[in-house]
Design a protein that fits this description.
The complex is a heterodimer of chains A (99) and B (117). With 99 residues, chain A is of the alpha/beta class. Chain A contains 4 helices and 5 strands, in the order βαβαβαβαβ. Chain B is built from 4 helices and 5 strands. Classes of the chains: A alpha/beta (99), B alpha/beta (117). At the A-B interface, helix 3 of A face loops of B.
């Protein structure tokens, strides 16, 4: 299953709700304001880093760069992807949940 | 004339971010003594190194730079909100004054009108 998260971790409860419901072996893609969750030194980043190792974590490149987060500052467990790869992800996964 | 404080609480991608700047710039253009406080996700507006064109949006940088040109007296940023987001005031594009919680309470008392967007 692919979870797509698009809201800032600070403004909406869906960031926390998504992290609570995600299961081992699933995928999580951060787009739009959800990429703020990867900023260094935040509790949301720790929460993402402590997800089970089998959860695959992705983030959209342009959304990171547009918001001023350098791609080098993204944690190593997150895979940076572009729009084309996002489409592939949604096709690969049998089910997609948009938060 | 009554003074106006605008509290800008939305990230730069939201229309409310631009609207808060429009309100404060318009008020300043009419000679209203005003200030803007960046709080909650609003502090992300100030972050250096953003490239809004990548997501087909217009950068807020020009509007932010206009604040001092229009005579907006107080350009303020909430210390707690910066800290929560792992940000330092040195990462801000504007020379914003950092306010702690006690100072914020005094600030809101000080202004005649307060608008939170």
């Amino acid at each position: 299953m692919l979870h797509i998260l698009r809201h800032s971790p600070h403004a909406q409860s869906c960031f926390a709700s998504c992290l609570r419901t995600i299961n081992a072996g699933q995928s999580l893609l951060l787009i739009e304001d959800a990429v703020y969750g990867l900023f260094p030194g935040t509790s949301s980043r720790s929460a993402l880093e402590y997800l089970p190792a089998t959860v695959r974590l992705y983030a959209l490149d342009v959304d990171l760069q547009a918001r001023g987060l350098a791609l080098d500052d993204v944690p190593t467990r997150a895979t940076i992807i572009n729009y084309a790869m996002m489409v592939e992800l949604t096709v690969e996964h049998r089910k997609v949940v948009s938060w | 004339m009554k003074s106006l404080l605008v509290i800008s609480r939305h990230p730069p991608t939201r229309r409310q971010a631009r609207e808060a700047l429009d309100v404060v710039l318009s008020a300043a253009a009419f000679g209203v003594p005003c200030g803007i406080l960046f709080m909650d996700d609003g502090v992300f507006q100030l972050l250096k190194g953003q490239d809004a064109a990548l997501i087909d949006q217009k950068s807020l940088a020009a509007n932010l730079q206009a604040l001092s040109l229009y005579g907006v007296e107080d350009i303020l940023v909430c210390q707690h909100s910066l800290g929560e987001r792992g940000l330092q005031v040195s990462q801000c594009i504007l020379d914003a004054r950092v306010m702690n919680n006690a100072e914020l309470a005094g600030l809101i008392e000080h202004y005649d009108q307060v608008l939170s967007l």
